[in-house]
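Please complete every field before forwarding. Incomplete forms are returned to the sender.

SECTION A: IDENTIFIERS
Entry label: holo-222
Bound molecule: zinc ion
Molecule representation: SMILES string

SECTION B: INPUTS
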Amino acid sequence: MPISWAILESDEGIWLIDCGLATAAAGDPSRVYGPVGQRARLLSTETLEERLAAAGLDRSLVAGVLLTHLHYDHAGALVDLPAGVPAWVHAAELAAAQAAGARLGYHPSILTAAVAWRSFVGDQQPLAGVALIETPGHSRGHVSVLITLGEQRYLVTGDAAPTVRNLSDRLLPGLHVDRTAAAASLDRLIALWRSGASPLPSHDPAFWAAQPEAVVRLPPAT
Ligand SMILES: [Zn+2]
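SECTION C: PREDICTED COMPLEX
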């Protein structure tokens, strides 16, 4: 099962949308995350550092992180980022992670990362052309990310719709903490997909086999 995250590149640096597992988890995620980590896989060639290098980038260029949610497979590598990097996360998600400890897909190491937390409620626009939209249900404070580049729109669905089939067949994510909210969030994403936004799903082997990376280049700031 792929674990997908995205790079937004601009003249001012790069922003990450999620960041995958911590580098220390390479080879054996359960070493860092315990038994729940046995469900994940991270090759040494798939770490944040290696994936950035493959795109001609490195960690020092990271200007910020937008987090769909704080499960370890989406936020684990926050611990590998330079101190003070702004990390945007929904306030309900941060609270859920703090309450969960090492349960329910969360892990305490993520909360001790040296990032600068930027918690929020409601839909947000942290960058020009980049909107965080509330899609709770898989987790308490899950958000999805809508990127608008001229006529082209991309939709980072996170685990609110981990595969394209969740959208096309209106399938709820297999894991959710609130079924009603997950259904409403899925309908919100389906509406965006039907209006022409291209999905970038979080755990979709067929999709990512055909399109192995997502580097979206933002136009220069005007
Ligand atoms: Zn998740």
